[in-house]
Amino acid sequence: MRMRRKRNLEPRMEACRGLLLVRGRPCLNLKEAAENYRALLDFSAVFGNTNPVKMEVGCGNGGFLLELAAREPQTNFLAVEVCTNVILTAMERMRGRGLPNVRFLNIPAETLPCYIPSGSISEIFLNFSTPLPAKGCEKQRLTSPRFLAIYRDLLAEGGGIYQKTDSAEFFEYSLEQYEAFGFRISACTRDLHHSPYAEENIITEYEANFLSQGKPICMARAVK
Q1: Burial class (CB in 10 A: 0-12, 13-18, 19+), 110
Q2: Domain 9-223 is found in CATH 1.10.260.40
Q3: What's the longest Cα–Cα distance across the chain?
Q4: What b/e string do you get for 89-103 counting C-beta neighbours within 10 Å, with b at 16 or more?
Q5: Is the pTM above the cut of 0.90?
Q6: Helices marked H in the chain — which ranges?
Q7: Are strands 76-80 and 102-106 parallel, antiparallel or unpaired?
Q8: Residue 106 and residue 17: Cα distance in Å, rounded?
Q9: Which candidate, 114, 125, 164, 187, has a CA 20 to 30 Å from the CA of 177?
Q10: Assign residue 203 a region: left if phi > 0, alpha if psi is -120 to 50, beta otherwise?
């Protein structure tokens, strides 16, 4: 079912203008945009410092980055979310906390190369991305070859992709794709909350729901 447009969406988006770096797509054809359009961000100008930059693709309501940005004040964060209704909630929550080290991009992940300089991201987070199990949807998965090619270009050497999911099938697919693209798996568990990695984990809203259902959480970090 399609999400209902939030009340007073545009005035509320305008109120968050200082947090929002980019909104929409540069042209209708996403492939053409990714290949030909460039409006690269200057992170030192955006954040007023040269701290490392991490990025969450599919930030949802922003709970994960709210916590992580508070934990790591010397790191800058980009929150990417295609759904305007959803990113508005994340921005309003972030504005309420007053964290200075987070900015938002309301764009499809396919257009990340239009705005993010190559080699500029130290870590990419994929938290509970939609698994899209149907065979015909493989290209839309956020760990499919088309997206891994994008991430590999944006990541600095030694940077990595941190993924969490409740879908074992999606997780196995992702591990195969990481290895096929030359990433090294530096951390991996199929039951995060009964592993040594649990102590530092930030529990997202989706994650809390899955845990209440008794679902184990899979986690991996794939390093460039």
Answers
A1: middle
A2: no
A3: 46
A4: bbbbebeeeebebbb
A5: yes
A6: 9-15, 30-36, 43-47, 63-71, 84-97, 112-115, 145-154, 168-180, 205-212
A7: parallel
A8: 12
A9: 114
A10: beta
